[in-house]
Design a protein that fits this description.
The structure is a homotetramer.
Chain A (H helix, E strand, L loop, with lengths): L1 E6 L7 H14 L4 E5 L4 H5 L2 E4 L1 H4 L23 H11 L4 E6 L1 H14 L3 E5 L15 H21 L3 E6 L6 H10 L3 E3 L7 H14 L4 E5 L27 H13 L3 E5 L11 H19 L5 E6 L2 E6 L12 H7 L5
Parallel strand pairs in A: 1-2, 1-4, 4-5, 5-10, 6-8, 6-9, 7-8
Antiparallel strand pairs in A: 2-3, 10-11
Chain lengths: ~350, ~350, ~350, ~350
């Protein structure tokens, strides 16, 4: 049995832990051998491979990034993409493929499995935690810890100065990082993409916070958007989906708060810091177990599936579930957290 | 409505986050007022209280320990203990009580609720994560992160020297911290209380590891015990349960490994470092939500219950569930992790 | 003997450690008592004081911020400012004053000492480390560690993607944080206020780095400025000193790199995260010793002086030395570090 | 010009940063090439080499350990040791040698330089910071930060429980780690090898601390020893120098405190955790600059010297200075810190 492995999409702490789990169990317990594909779907598309065995996975558990490289190459958009992948898999005598990635990567995997009968098992990956098929995805806990630590440090300044502190965190379509780090960090306002925010309401919270205690900390997801009438973000342009340009909502908001409340405001933009570096213990645990269960699914011939977390168990769900529905923050949960606003 | 709050048993990062969640929601949304009881059950037993309001919970979210103090006082073992508690609650006009604690603290709470009709809601707390009624308890993730970071650091020495490194972590009756930190840290041997270990097997893993790569790291829960025949731990004495003295298993094991393999071995004993300091983001999230849901249970008059985590939801279970059964590491899970041994 | 203590200027980890050192030694060894002045020079100006004794300094060692509060109030710019301070000190029977602060705060202190004979001892404070009279100031090491950790995390993304990563760090007039964190983090370009940068040279380094290895990391001090011809920063405006507006150089540079090299670039702006939170071990050591030596200077009647670090010794220098000359990055040192560029 | 590089003695964060500094500057600026010797003096003794060029040093800056391996092999104690080294250096056409290590490694280097005219430059390394020729050595700041963070976490338990907490840190002959981390962590007792401690005095501090505040934290260097009459450490044995066995002083002390004060005491033994893992920003800065200056000394033909830190400058001192005198904690400094005891 020869198994191919690839990682697609954006950076996410834990990718290497998944790979290590797959290879260690696959070689030691099942006697499989492995082919690493380079840079996501570009690997099987171009037959670009890398040695993947036990020495190759030694020491990678605590490392961010992916030893296989990644890309956003989509074979469905390439001429004869699927055919070339099938030919390369066949030429390399690859019996099964484990694809680790997000919505796009797993969408291709699902199609390969459903339409072309390729033996694929998926491992879900999204730092934003916005996949409805699984309780959590790896990388998310790391990102939340990093953002929380940053917020912790801002409290000091908030305590001794009169400045509003705005922190922009990741989350284009879902506010999970914002709501988790904002709650854990004791933020006074949390703004998420799921609910357009009212700048006047934000300013009211800011003002009431100043009265009750010290300067407020505002956590805003990069995809959070103001309500109609407040739509002119920094450069006033719309992106290709007709949304206002998301980049820079933190700085935009800081300026609006300054303008409307007369208080100074400062911005921190954590950016890619949130998705790099060593994974948290939880993410290593989850990623490793995803790897162990993915190779078990291969052994069981349970293709077209994806591993997922349910409570403390790793289960299998249809690959199509990966892309079915974005998991967004439930309004009830947002309301629950709202008790700490202002 | 006046609500009493107490924290009992050992230290655990997140206790203050629970208290803050209770008070913020209770005062702001329900208009309740609060009485803090000092030092666990000693507080209501002796009528020893402390002011508990919004200024009192300001800034405590990231702090370890508990602003209410804690103790292991058991009113069931005190003369007229229950009667004195009832009298003090009545005198202080406390309508409901939220007890945050482990098996012992919640055992008293269950009895107060079941036998004496006291209006009690429980919040489970055990750093060892060994409570079957909930997926996770707060404090555990923090402890695992601390132990994992220590193991990470030991890899450096293991790489460049020929020493076996033994790390003793918490876990008297359950190996959750050992198995999580050992897996996340890439340990080569993990020993847990649930399965007596065979020193010769440990030495075989140690020896094979030296051949394959660099020096091995052995994670051992403080409650792990060798098999019969290896029973003479450091001081040879039995504790009150007839168990060998658990303290010092790490150092004992290091010496046995040295004696049997001829390799040098060094020990790290993390001790209370694992249960102190600021909680991880996950623990703050979980603890805060436990607090919010506990006061909601009070509002609903749902007494005799305890909050618990199921997947990503906070649910209520009978208080008696808290003490029903120790959640130990499933042999299947231990076997799953065993792929990384040696 | 009654001693007043105040902290002025911006936030800086270690301020509380200084205060604790002063009070512990002053009360225990010399039997002095203390008056805390609130919010820098506003305190003695308005006679606004706070209790300052051993219980008041308990537990503050690891805390960021300052228990005394801070401000930028300058009594030299207030009507009768100096007279009001002298009157208040006299009314409160304050025999000596310890002023902890940067150039502005210590400038006032120097004038009070020199011109008005007030008994003042200074403790230097600047997170930017730009004071020539001392080897290091506290807070700086903490800021460098935070920035370095952020850069560490960005390497992961740089490794697996083709994006230029720009990190803007503190440093308006001196590049110490940029050069220390950039070197420690393994940055490929470091830009400091002391030397105007050439965007084409930056782009050349970026391009050569892509060829040799993976994506480059560019560390830029907030006060770094491009050479003539590249002067139009984001909003094109000049600040009150006739400098171009410094805020936003990171984002501006990222856009220029994108425009000129065709590579995607992303920005991280750490902002106040760098000056908040718990101090590093070194900063606690330095700050505590500054406190101990400041009170010793008071005991010796050695007024008009300031404590300073020379090698591993704490020495005293004239207060006027604090404001004499900005300590900037030596061109030779910048060149030394330049071996890692590109 | 071909330059050999070796690392000897115990683990120390920053070794890789030194190597990288040497190679980057030596190849890029001077056009040298390099030979890595494996496992300290064993490398040149046996002609065991490893490729050392720019790709070999890529990415090693943040890594603990040493890519060259280390050992305690002493060629002076090997038959024809010096002759074999000279022959191997000659055979490999090595013109100069950079030796990175502690007292033993640099002692050999000094002899090679002085007696045999070998072209050697030294880089000092001791995690204990006990070298009189330099203000600081790399690795020390990292160890102090790790120990301080552990002490920080213990405060939580100390606050909420009545247990004495004993932390054993590194330091066989000098108490630098103990005194720095103890001061930075706010310990209540600090015991160092330079001054035999009186257990009754320790117990007096413990008891007075309980009265004034919460439970005490005792930091003890592994090499600290009780005064005569208290000499029977755990196993009562003497080591080869006639000293009592140092290992286990923490646990021994905890038991003595329990016996004499009646208070419970718990021990944390950090062990090798202190010397592993990623270096702090300061240690990366210092180690990198040591590397840059060592290769500069080679270029200048300034052999028989060692780089050292004086204030913020890197200077050169005779290699013999490395082994001249142990830098121990000055009694005056210990007294200065003593204000925080009890």
């Amino acid at each position: 049995m020869r198994v191919g492995v690839l990682t697609g999409g954006g950076d996410c702490p834990g990718l290497n832990a998944v790979i290590r789990g797959i290879v260690r169990k696959g070689m030691q317990e099942y006697g499989y051998d492995f082919v690493g594909f380079r840079d996501g779907w570009r690997g099987p598309l171009e037959g670009d491979t890398v040695r993947l065995d036990i020495p190759a996975v030694r020491g990678i558990l605590p490392r961010g990034g992916t030893i296989l490289g990644s890309s956003r190459t989509n074979p469905l958009k390439q001429e004869n993409g699927i055919r070339r992948i099938r030919e390369n898999l066949s030429k390399l005598e690859v019996d099964a493929l484990i694809a680790i990635g997000g919505e796009d990567t797993l969408g291709v995997a699902a199609r390969l499995a459903d339409v072309y009968g390729v033996h694929v098992v998926g491992v879900p990956k999204t730092i934003d935690n916005d996949l409805s098929a699984t309780d959590y995805t790896f990388g998310f806990d790391t990102a939340v810890n990093i953002a929380t630590e940053a917020i912790d440090r801002l409290h000091t300044t908030a305590e001794s100065h009169m400045r509003v502190l705005v922190v922009e965190v990741m989350g284009r379509h879902a506010g999970w990082i914002a709501i988790h780090s904002g709650l854990a960090g004791g933020a006074n306002v949390i703004l998420i993409p799921e609910q357009r925010f009212d700048v006047d309401q934000v300013c009211a919270w800011v003002t009431s916070r100043f009265k009750a205690s010290y300067a407020p900390i505002v956590v805003v997801a990069e995809g959070a958007m103001p309500k109609d009438g407040d739509m002119v973000l920094k450069d006033g342009s719309l992106d290709s989906f007709g949304h206002v340009r998301l980049s820079g909502v933190g700085e935009w908001l800081a300026k609006e708060i300054e303008r409307r409340t007369g208080k100074e405001a400062r911005t921190t933009v954590l950016g890619h810091v949130q998705r790099g570096g060593t994974p948290s213990a939880f993410d290593r645990w989850l990623a490793t177990r995803f790897g162990l269960h993915a190779i078990e699914a291969v052994r069981d011939g349970d293709f077209g599936t994806m591993v997922a977390l349910r409570g403390t168990d790793i289960v299998r769900v249809p690959l199509s579930a990966a892309t079915a529905r974005l998991k967004t923050v439930d309004p009830k949960l947002y309301e629950e957290v709202g008790v700490f606003f202002g």
